[in-house]
Amino acid sequence: MSHSPSAALPVGHYAYDDVDRTFLKQRVAQFKDQVERRLSGALTEEEFKPLRLMNGLYLQLHAYMLRVAIPYGVLDAKQMRVLAHIARTYDRDYGHFTTRQNIQFNWIRLEDTPEILNVLADTDMHAIQTSGNCIRNVTADQFAGAAADEVLDPRVYAEILRQWSTLHPEFTFLPRKFKIAISGSQQDRVAARFHDIGLIAREGENGRPVFEVFVGGGLGRTPIIGVRLRDDLPEEDLIAYLEAVLRVYNAHGRRDNIYKARIKILVQALGTEEFLNQVNAEFAAMDRARYRLPEATVEAIRARFGAPDFAPVGNAAEKLAAQRKADRAFDAWVHTNTHPHKQPGYCSVTVSCKPAGGIPGDVTSAQMDLLADLAERYSFGELRITHLQNVVLGHLRQDALYDVWQALEKNGLGEANVGFITDIVACPGLDYCALANARSIPIAQKLSSRFANADLQREIGPLRLNISGCINACGHHHAGHIGILGVDKRGEEAFQITLGGSAGDGDASIGQILGSAMSEDETVDAIARIIDTYLSRRTAGERFIETCRRLGTAPFKDAAYATA
Amino acid sequence: MDRRNSRRDAEGTSVITANRLLDGRIVWLAADGQWATLIEDAKLYPNSAVEEALKACNARAQEEALVGIYGVQVTQTASGPLPVTSRERIRAAGPSVHPDFTPDWHAPHPAPYA
Amino acid sequence: MPLLENGQIIQDTWQIAVEGDSLPTGNVLVPLARLSEGLGRNTDARLGVVLTSADEVETLRDALPRLDVVSLTFPIFRDGRPFTQARALREHLHFKGEIRAGGHVLPDQYEFLLRCGVTAIDLPEGSDPAVWQRAHEAFTVAYQPSILNEQAEGFALRRRLT
After folding, report:
1. Sorted alphabetically, which Pfam families does this protein's record hold (chain C) (predicted)?
2. What is the per-residue pLDDT across A452-461, written as a single tens digit (0 to 9) for each?
């Protein structure tokens, strides 16, 4: 029951041509030259640091960390195998999927990096702009091109923006990093309002897309929900408008204080109206013809994307129904880990990278190889990384699910917990990260073990738990229904709890801090009491976030700080 | 540099640490002037002498291929110097979530560059 | 200071206004605050202006037809405002003269500067122009239009760099 794509084009992502490949090799050569100049002393560490960051290379606590770009979260089986190869050969046999749909390797050597980048380039991958004060990897809906509720596939536009932002001459030394997310569904699965620019695409009147444009959202030290600048930006003005926004930001964003340098601070300081006026003035003054995005260009990029060639599914749905009836554990997994597909007889599967007691988002090279095998065999060779640190197989026949689940189960990837309390989002924290104040992973592991019971998780229902090891908020704690923030109390780790955050679905909100920081074990106990409070106070069918909003934080705060 | 890196009491004892430029690995300045991978081998400095020692180290940073040189306050224990902050304890011992990844970890298979 | 222009090192013949002194005769670069003084000189010598990265290029709109050089300044290479200043001078104000970049600039930024409209770099004494030339030749393609209006490379927004 294997599929073979009808064309040689990769399904779900842009196919490189010789021009793109030449560019990647030139970028690797450039980096190699920069490393040599650093070693010779021609570049100081201060000068070299931003240059290596723009190739995804950080110096963390124990070693260099390399963040490899997975544009709009999509990669193919061949690329996943190369990531496994890098984990085995240059790292310690694992990688970590991030909340920006990328992958990080924790034990990289600077001297190996040009060679690693070369290996990546051989399969059309890179680490370009996965860090630095530039336009970062553009993220997109993990169910793009598959979801039943999708209006249009955002990945073509994510690719256009990826190309446009690559080594952009004007916007590579911005005041601070700049993150763009794009969704093609009204169900905002990308947290568009928590990005520097968030785009939500829909069909316009002339059959071409229009974009809702949000600007100035973000988490970090100052969590802010983005403001809507445009409701109906035409496709042909997409690049021009983003140029205008970036120009205002590059010219006027603060450069005197790293903590006030994001575009959200500029938007707040000027006020939405004045910011919009400046963007509009720039938009009016610029050479619009130069930056116009013609339909032909969009279609030329679209033509480089492979599409799945769906086969007739016969009685797939019936077969699945029978298998679900026969196997309760499988049924539970299908219930939590699948998502409706626009093609009858198909569905999308979210592979949980959150095993009970495990490290959120970490996968071994063997698991990467397995995922590549499954993608090749069952899902047109396509894989997606989600901003919730899981992996999606986008297009599975419903009668293939049982085989896929069994293979995942055998390899520690069969957890039936997507959207539940143990589907924890966590940054690497102080175990690896040079910026962190506290470890994120051990507390995630304790909570994951504490709530591991499948019936208990189901009873608690949909709940998003996010953990950040410092105020930079890579774990998106403000956007978690329950958020945990690691802080430094005179050199010791401590944790604050936030409650009531939400990332999307049109109801973005920022979690509120419950009270003073506690130790790791106290925090785990406090969260257990918060859950008990929810279970006893909820009305029939009420989700955790809804109960939070109805009751406010007071009863949860009482529970969290109650001494046993 | 991270301001946490220079947080030291007036009194007390410190060791000097850095990351190697070429592979990023953590090293500690030993009594013989070499940079060791284990904190046990680190030379102890009274806090009053740390700034001067750092100045000397920084002057040689490029030629010794080191980055981010700073002092770490420690207490002395039977098994060697123990940093006072959790951050530096993790740097000294390796990530707490991978107990096998101690500072003297070696790849089970020789890497291509070995 | 040596000036890098079209891949050649040339000797800079321009003088820079010294604070507190009256403007010299000959070609001179003045800070924005002394622009009207520069414009008021009764001479055939040419005039240029030195901007800080915080200056608004829009303030040059009226004076620009009488300026031969606008010199942009990087206080540190990470301060990317001169890129936007250069692009605005070309695209909004249609400035046709020389745009220089000086201060703390890296060879790794050279191609970006050229594509934003900069035409000359004030190099620190002792700089190796070969490193700059190598940076200029590092890439044969770019992924977006620029004010240089390079030729398209294949489909989409790609441009051929020469």
Report:
1. DUF934
2. 999 999 999 9
Q: What is the DSSP string of A389-436?
A: S-EEEEEEEGGGHHHHHHHHHHTT-----TTSTTS-EE--GGGT-SS-
CATH number of C2-137: 3.20.20.70
Across the interface, do B65 and A39 touch by the CB < 8 Å criterion?
A: yes
**Of A277, A302, A327, the domain-final residue:** A302
Indicate the helix (H) or strand (E) that contains A483: strand A482-489
DSSP-derived letter for residue A10 is P
SS (H, E, C) chain C: CEEEECCEEEECCCEECCCCCCCCCCCEEEEHHHHHHHHCCCCCCCEEEECCCCCCHHHHCCCHHHCCEEEEEECCCCCCHHHHHHHHHHHCCCCCCEEEEEECCCHHHHHHHHHHCCCEEECCCCCCHHHHHHHHHCCCEECCCCCCCCCECCCCCCEECC
Q: Are residues A291 and A176 in the same domain?
A: yes
3-state SS, residue A320: helix
C-beta separation of C67 from C48 below 8 A: yes
From C91, C108, C109, residue closest to A34, measured CB to CB? C108
Q: List the beta bridge partners of residue A305.
A: A14
Could you please report the per-residue DSSP string of A233-255?
EEGGGHHHHHHHHHHHHHHHS--
A298 and A330 in a single domain? The answer is no
A180 and A288 together in one domain: yes
For the stretch A206-265, pLDDT in tens is 889 999 999 999 998 899 999 999 999 999 999 999 999 999 999 999 999 999 999 999
Counting beta carbons within 10 angstroms of the beta carbon of residue B108, is it exposed (0 to 12), middle (13 to 18) or buried (19 or more)? exposed
CB A13 within 8 A of CB A385: no
The pTM assigned to this predicted structure is: 0.96
Q: Find chain A residues with C-beta within 8 A of C139's C-beta.
A: 23, 26-27, 30, 167
Q: A470: closest CA among A434, A514, A510?
A: A434
Residue B4 · residue B85 · CB < 8 Å: yes
What is the tally of structural domains in chain A? Answer: 4
Distance CA A60, CA A43 (A): 20
Print pLDDT tens along chain B (114 aa): 455 666 788 899 999 999 999 999 999 999 999 999 999 999 999 999 999 999 999 999 999 999 999 999 999 999 999 999 999 999 999 999 999 999 988 877 655 543
CA dihedral B86, B89, B90, B92 (to 10 degrees): 160
Of A37, A50, A167, the CB nearest to C78: A50
Q: Indicate which of C83, C99, C133, C161 best probes the interface with A, i.e. most A CBs within 10 Å of its own CB.
A: C83
Beta-carbon separation of A92 and B96 below 8 A = no
Instruction: Find the domain containing A219 and state its range.
Output: 147-302
Cα distance between residue B101 and residue A91, in whole Å: 12
Kindly report the length of chain B: 114
Nearest to A392 by CA among A194, A141, A43: A141
Q: Please tell me which of the candidates C79, C83, C92 has its beta carbon nearest to residue A170.
A: C83
What is the distance in angstroms between the CA of the first residue and the CA of the last residue of chain C?
A: 27
